[in-house]
Amino acid sequence: MWQNDEKGGGETAVSHPPPLPGHLAAGRRPALPLPARLFRQVILAPILSRVATIYGIYRGFPQNVMWGFLLFIAFVMALYVLRPSPNPSEPPFAEEKGESRLRQLALVTNHAQTGQHARWELAREMQSLTLSLMQLETAETPETLRERIQLGDLPAPPEIVQLLDLCATLPSYRSFLEAREAAPNQRIAQIDQFDPQTTLDALHRWRKSNQELV
Amino acid sequence: MATWCCWRCRLCFTCCSACWPPPKLPICKLRAACPIPACPLGAELIVTLTIQNNGPALGELLLTDALPPNLSLTDGSNQRLLALPANGSHSFSYTVQVPRGRYAFTAVTAVVREPFDLRRRQFRYDVPGSFFAYLVPRASNLKQVTIHPRRTRVYAGIVPARVGGEGMDFFGVRDYRPGDSQRQINWRAGARHPGSLFSNEFEQERVADVGLILDARTASNIPYGDQSLLEYSIEAITLMVDALLNQGNRVALLIYGGAVDYTLPGYGKLQKERILQALSGAKLQSSHVFAELRSLPTRLFPAQSQIIFVSPLLPGDAPFLRRLRAFDYEVLLVSPNPIGYERRFLPPTPDMALAAELAQLERELLHNQLLQAGIFVLDWEVERPFDEIARAHLQTTRLTRPV
Residue B181 is part of which domain span? Predict the structure, then answer.
């Protein structure tokens, strides 16, 4: 556009940007800024072309083949997840430290103060020990010993007789349970009458008298 | 107490950068590693670590010498944080208390840090070295352990051989043979049988094969912290080995626990050293295979020889000891009493007293059963010194002579 200079009469060039509607009307596209062009040419175009290629390949395969392939992938993944693997956090095998005999007996005697089952267990331990000691000193079988004590042939303190009676009445855990179920909320009188310390003292007395006789 | 020194190791660092590039692996050279091979039990060991830097300066270097378990620091520290100039060296020492056992130093860890702790790298240098703390048997009055195996060796000793010949104790009377001295003739027997002469025979005395078995099973030795009955058993064996070898016997040792640790039979001072070394390395072991005495390899011991079994004993051990007797071994059981020992660690309550009485009765029963099988049992209350008990019981022939 040229404008006349009023004073000098010369021509001066003045540029004005054309209006946008005018461009659109003329069918011309505006020039995109550089970042947008870069994004379209460097990132978007390759991605879309690859997507189109993959879509073409996908459409080229039959559907049953595609489903079979996907199921195979899922199967492989399931196998991978379910594979047995050693657990590194698992501690190595170590034998548990067993309790000594003294600690076992101390536990039972402690529980025997209140619990009937522990007292009955203690009675069984003491009966086994008593019979073994008697067997060692008299050289007779446990059955013969029991018979002789019951018949009064072998003199034994009454506490030991009571202990043997208790263990003969309740010889097994089943019989102990039956006795407890017979009177659910009551204590078993025979077990309550058993006193471990008195019985042990009686056993010491019996051994001493027996050794004096020998 | 004697102090023992050992040059733990001498490290050489080369090309270790303390600048912005990440620290490179320092090249470690073990210039000298001369740990002492042995030191007496309970000694204090001074460990000296010397490091030399052959590369550029190191701003911050943390060295840690891995201590074997059971060694306790008494002075200094096994860690040192230092800055090493280029081509500089540094030494530091620490002191450890050494209980009985074998020990192995394995590795020194070095952590190199850069200024402001921007980067750090850890390196591990294998610096192997091992030593053992050996037992020093204390002076003892136990001069003799009286044994009576059925079979002896051919050499002269002091063990009655159950064979007539030259000796001290009267053995029997036999027909006179030409060459018998007049002093051997039994004139009384000859007077009862006119026309015949008889000679006295004396029991030959020889050396014997003795197999010592140390029970190192965890279950039977009742460990409490770092204490256990194994130490008492080892003390008993140490004293008995001295007496048995001084008598001229051939002695072997078997440590029974997690594995079979066998010291071949031998005589004299060298054998004593071997046995002491084996005992120095003895430790508590757990194994399902050796939980019972079923796996005891009896064939390691000559037939009809003497076996001395040192064990606190488990209730299930009696059948296996009886089996040893059935194989015609003479068995002597030295048993540190676990009940008195364990009561020291447990509260003195009436329940405990009752339980201890019961356990003691069970133990007496077990011992009586073994005595019936012909096994002599020496029950040792560990509060009393072993040689005092042993002098009273092991030096008398009446108790250990087989039935």
Answer: 163-205
| pLDDT tens-digit readout, A122-154 | 999 999 999 998 888 888 888 888 888 888 888
Q: Which of A97, A100, A114, A122 to mutate: most B Cβ within 10 Å? A: A100
How does pLDDT run across B170-180, given as a tens digit for each residue? 889 999 999 98
Taking an 8 Å cut-off on Cβ atoms, the answer to whether B372 and A126 are in contact is no
Count how many domains chain B has.
3
Q: Using an 8 Å CB-CB cutoff, list chain A residues near B218.
A: 95, 97
Mean pLDDT of chain B: 83
Contact state of B222 with A200 under an 8 Å Cβ cutoff: no
Amino acid of residue A161 = V
Torsion over CA: A193, A196, A197, A198 (sign) = positive
Contact of A139 with chain B, judged by CB distance below 8 Å, is answered with no
Helix spans in B181-317 (H): 187-192, 218-221, 230-246, 268-280
List, as one string, the DSSP characters of A87-113: -TTSPPP-PPPPPPHHHHHHHHHHHHT
pTM check: above 0.80? no
CATH number at residue B62: 2.60.40.10
CB-CB neighbours of B182 under 10 Å? 7
> Is residue B53 domain-shared with residue B179, that is, in the same domain?
no
Query: Of B134, B150, B172, at which residue does a domain stop?
Result: B134
State whether B264 and B379 are in the same domain: yes
pLDDT band, very low/low/confident/very high, at A96 (cuts 50, 70, 90): low
| Residue B260 DSSP label | E
Res. A93: pLDDT tops 80: no
What is residue B46's DSSP assignment?
E
